[in-house]
Design goal:
Blueprint (H helix, E strand, L loop, with lengths): L8 E2 L18 E7 L27 H18 L6 E8 L7 H15 L1 E11 L6 H10 L3 E7 L3 H6 L7 H12 L3 E8 L6 H13 L4 E6 L7 H7 L8 H17 L2 E5 L2 E4 L6 H7 L3 E5 L4 E4 L2 E5 L3 H9 L5 E5 L3 H12 L6 E2 L5 H5 L1 H6 L5 H5 L2 E2 L3 H5 L1 H9 L1
Parallel strand pairs: 2-3, 2-10, 3-4, 4-5, 5-6, 6-7
Antiparallel strand pairs: 1-13, 7-9, 8-9, 11-12, 12-13, 14-15
Length: 405
């Protein structure tokens, strides 16, 4: 289970938005649908997920109907605010969404489309464990309107998968990709680097295996040790080594080189898309500060600067909705300084860059120093945009500090 929810103000029982909130109909709107179920908890995972023994009365077979109840609530709340917009992107995350029958995922997607509509050519993504994807499931998802499958590959090396407590076999990734392709779905694969015992050669093998699958998109994330996870406890007890920062930097540089040489362009620090293929439009909606409603236990939402988050446990989530109440646990409106910090943090990580005109004058004066340090692309800066170099991507947090301190 994830860590504690953020602090914030109490959320209205009916979920109503503040009367002074003004929604811009020109801002894109997305939906995130959280499916919090997993067969096994991975040792590194800090997401809000639950195995069968942790559900405490919540019913997995009733989950779709429960979440559809929140969709109905969201339509009423946003309709009262006078700004119903069709969805640009939809993302089923988890957990393992494909643990639910594809018919349940289809019903949830259908309910969201009935509530809001969906733009032509919208991106609809489902995350999947490789072991849960069959040709029949992929075909049923495609028929329901899903356009993209995001497959949790993580590694192609058995001992690295074991260190991460992943239960799938490496060959099952190819089976899942082939099933998705046969159904006409775009394919993304997720990788993690820096696991205990993973060498640079192990990582090279995983990159080679991932590129040989010819996906449209690859995400590669450095392993982060989150408090409260099994892996954090193992490291604290000295059972496994902590990630090595220098090795992870070498792994990132290797990933960028291998992916660039095999036809992938980076567009965000941890994300690459095949040249000419679709980037993750849903993630870009987050990074650009668009509006979204997060459905499900522990899910977060953002509309016109207002943020809120749902109660964490599936049983509490279901109980709230059964009582006709909003599942929101808390809400906040970040002040302008916090909003600006987040804008700089997120936009500077993207290849499209951060417009220099949006920076405070004292921050703009520091850009020359960042160029001199090899962290910022000088040609892009001359064109008025801050774009990180490869070295800058490795030290992205330092760039943000330089621009905001």
């Amino acid at each position: 289970m994830a860590g504690p929810l953020p602090l914030g103000d109490p959320a209205p029982v009916d979920g109503r938005l503040p009367a002074d909130l003004r929604i811009d109909p020109a801002v894109a709107f997305s939906a995130y649908l959280h499916v919090p179920f997993c067969r096994v908890r991975c040792g590194y995972c800090d997401f809000n997920t639950y195995t069968a023994s942790e559900l405490r009365g919540a019913r997995q077979d009733a989950y779709a109907d429960t979440l559809i109840g929140e969709i109905a609530l969201s339509r009423a709340v946003l309709g009262e605010a006078g700004a119903l917009r069709p969805m640009d992107t939809v993302f089923f995350g988890g957990g393992t969404p494909t643990l639910l029958p594809p018919g349940d995922l289809a019903r949830m997607l259908g309910a969201a489309i009935d509530a809001f509509g969906i733009v032509e050519g919208a991106e609809v993504t489902v995350e999947a464990n490789p072991d849960t994807v069959t040709p029949a499931i992929a075909a049923e998802l495609a028929a329901a309107g899903v356009t993209r499958l995001s497959i949790g590959m993580q590694s192609a090396v058995p001992h690295v998968l074991a260190a991460l407590d992943r239960t799938h076999r490496p060959e099952n990734v190819q089976t899942a990709v082939e099933a998705a392709r046969a159904a006409g779905l775009a394919v993304s694969v997720d990788l993690i680097y820096g696991a205990p015992g993973e060498s640079l050669d192990d990582w090279r093998a995983s990159l080679r295996a991932a590129t040989e699958l010819a996906p449209d998109h690859i995400s590669a994330y450095a392993l982060i040790i989150e408090d409260g996870t099994k892996l954090a406890r193992q490291i604290r007890r000295g059972e496994v080594p902590a990630p090595d920062d220098d090795l992870q930097a070498d792994m990132y540089e290797l990933a960028d080189g291998v992916l660039r040489d095999t036809g992938f362009d980076w567009y965000e620090v941890s994300n690459w898309a095949r040249t000419g293929a679709q980037r993750s439009r849903h993630n870009m909606a987050y990074w650009r500060g668009s509006d979204w409603w997060g459905f499900g236990p522990g899910a977060h939402s953002h509309v016109s600067g207002l943020r809120w988050w749902n109660v964490k446990h599936p049983a509490a989530y279901a109980q709230r909705l059964a009582m006709g109440e909003s599942p929101a646990a808390g809400t906040e409106r970040p002040d302008p300084a916090a909003v600006e910090l987040e804008r700089i943090l997120l936009r500077s990580r993207m290849a499209e860059g951060l417009p220099l005109t949006g920076l405070a004058p004292d921050a703009r004066t520091r850009v020359a120093g960042l160029i001199a340090d090899g962290l910022v692309d000088p040609a892009a800066a001359l064109r008025g945009t801050l774009v990180l170099t490869l070295r800058g991507r490795l030290l992205a947090d330092a760039v943000v500090r330089a621009l905001t301190d």
